[in-house]
Amino acid sequence: MEERIIEKVLSFTKLTVKITKIGNDYHIILAGGDRPHIGCTVLATPRPSLKGDGKVSSTASVINVTGHKDEYLCRYLAEKMAAAQNAVVVCTGGFHTDGITEEQIREVQQAVEEMIL
User: Fold this and answer.
1) For position 48, which CATH number holds?
2) Range of the domain at 75
3) What is the per-residue DSSP string for 46-100?
4) Residues near 48 by Cβ (< 8 Å), separated by ≥ 6?
5) Model confidence over 41-53: pLDDT tens digits?
6) Which of 17, 21, 37, 54 is 20 to 30 A away from residue 99, measured at CA?
7) Closest to 63 (Cα-Cα) out of 45, 46, 88, 44
8) Which helix or strand (DSSP H or E) is residue 9 part of?
9) Cα(106)–Cα(4) distance, rounded to whole angstroms?
């Protein structure tokens, strides 16, 4: 199995994404903030784009832990990776920082978007 760890130091904490290739598919673990946890799991499967342009897109199924808001991060990673690699992708994880500000939330979202490119 191939593994790749991507770490991004933010202005207020660190974010880690670990990508493991399992056969032709991928498992992603996202962790960060003061108390990393499992707040969400997303399963993304590749499919032909609905635009009919011959490109690959993806469809996701999501399981959230009640009260957690990690879906955006895990869903983004899973869907982008599934489409890019034409593979099934599971992303699990969570990010938590007490008293996080709107600006810090945007910083985390931007970091995740940059990490998967």
Assistant:
1) 3.30.230.90
2) 2-115
3) EEE-TTSSS-EEEEEEEEE-TT---HHHHHHHHHHHHHHHTS-EEEEEEEE-TT-
4) 54, 55, 56, 57
5) 999 999 998 888 8
6) 17
7) 44
8) strand 2-9
9) 24
